[in-house]
Design a protein that fits this description.
Helix content is 58%, strand content 10%. The strands form 2 sheets. Strands 1-6-2-5-4-3 form a 6-stranded parallel sheet, with helices on both faces. A two-stranded parallel ribbon has the order 7-8. The protein has 2 domains: 2-140, Rossmann fold, CATH 3.40.50; 146-343, no CATH class. It has helices at 9-14, 30-42, 59-63, 68-73, 94-105, 125-132, 146-159, 166-173, 180-193, 202-208, 211-226, 229-243, 246-270, 274-280, 290-299, 302-321, 326-343; strands at 2-3, 22-26, 54-58, 83-90, 111-117, 136-140, 163-164, 199-200. α9 (180-193) runs antiparallel to α13 (246-270) and α16 packs antiparallel against α17 (326-343).
Length: 349
């Protein structure tokens, strides 16, 4: 089956080909990778809330346990028919590539293997194995171009019953792209801000991205990473309670955690330390924040970051469904993350 072109992926996911036991979704846009993986999982026919049907694994675990994926794939289910093995944070793990190669040669019946990966080089490791196999397919995810960004804008605003004028669209587009999840979060934030309106204007865009608001948001995010509960409470109150933009903090923290997740994956793959990961980060981490980011990388593993991002996503959905609860629900969830940071000592690397 091999690999699809980037522009073919959405069409394929709209009508997934039957009988594909192994699917690799990879690329530099981790938000888009995650979004497409969930879209495929929802169409797989497997109940995602059934722990007997869905097994979620982190690639870092598989790299420490050779043949783990093969064993999981060939385990006979006691209570489930179809099964889904969902692997996240794949990169250059040799054990994972070896397991996938074995499964491509002899895929187990009634089991689908879904793998989320970062940017993989052509002809190397896991990507090479999947593209060469007749029983697997690879779907690339590259950063959104202007047309893709416009599609996301239209989808989110249509769901909110909003339109946007051309000048406002142009202003908004300048701040979007690079990561699909962050793009959706920014547009959802705008929709929440414009709740009760029919259309979004350029004034709405400017009001939502003002300098004072950005300062409060950054202070709140840094306080969460540091585990400084009092500083977070002050910054959040100034941002969310003062301007009714609780979602701005959620969006900013989401972007920061996605960046941490990317750096942490490099650390775990290459055996580096927080300082080297921060030094190599692109775009670079501002000098005054480097120590804070290093401490967060030492404190939270990829698995922990994925769990926090999942909870963040659930809170975003709640704030959209119940906007009257947005300020309180966001405060409670973010305070819990800050408490976790305060309790968790930095791990030695």
């Amino acid at each position: 089956m091999g690999q699809l072109k980037a522009h073919e992926v959405d069409g394929w996911l709209a009508r997934p080909q039957a009988g594909v036991p192994i699917l690799l979704i990879y690329g530099p846009d981790r938000g888009l990778v995650s979004e497409r993986a969930r879209r495929f999982a929802e169409k797989s026919g497997v109940p995602l809330d059934d722990p007997f049907s869905v097994v979620r694994l982190d690639a870092s675990e598989l790299d420490k346990d050779a043949s783990r994926l093969v064993d999981e794939a060939n385990t006979l289910p006691m209570f489930a028919g179809k099964r889904l093995l969902w692997v996240r944070n794949a990169a250059g793990q040799k054990a994972l590539a070896d397991d996938v190669k074995a499964l491509c040669a002899a895929p187990p019946p009634d089991t689908t293997i879904l793998i989320e990966a970062g940017d993989l080089k052509k002809g190397v490791g896991l990507r090479s194995v999947v593209e060469a196999a007749g029983q697997a397919i690879a779907l690339p995810c590259y950063s959104d171009d202007a047309r893709s960004v416009d599609t996301v804008i239209d989808d989110e605003l249509r769901n909110a019953g909003l339109s946007i004028d051309p000048e406002a669209r142009a202003l908004l587009r300048r701040n979007l792209g690079g990561d699909r999840m962050a793009t959706r979060a920014e547009v959802a934030k705008l929709a929440l801000y414009a709740l009760g309106q029919d259309s979004i204007s350029s004034d709405d865009i400017r009001a939502l991205t003002g300098d004072v608001s950005s300062i409060s948001v950054d202070e709140a995010v840094d306080a969460i990473l540091e585990g400084n509960l009092a500083a977070f409470d002050t910054a959040y109150s100034r941002q969310a309670l003062g301007t009714s933009q609780a979602y701005a903090v959620l969006s900013a923290l989401q972007r920061q955690l996605l960046s941490l997740q990317s750096m942490r994956a490099v650390m775990e793959r290459e055996g580096g330390n927080p300082a080297s990961a921060v030094a190599a980060a692109r775009p670079p981490v501002f000098f005054g924040r480097r120590k804070l980011v290093e401490q967060a990388l030492g404190r939270w593993t990829s698995r922990t970051l994925a769990r926090i991002l999942e909870r963040l996503h659930e809170t975003v959905l709640l704030t959209r469904r119940r906007p009257e609860l947005a300020v309180a629900a966001t405060h409670r969830m973010l305070m819990d993350i800050a408490r976790d940071a305060a309790r968790s000592p930095q791990k030695r690397q």
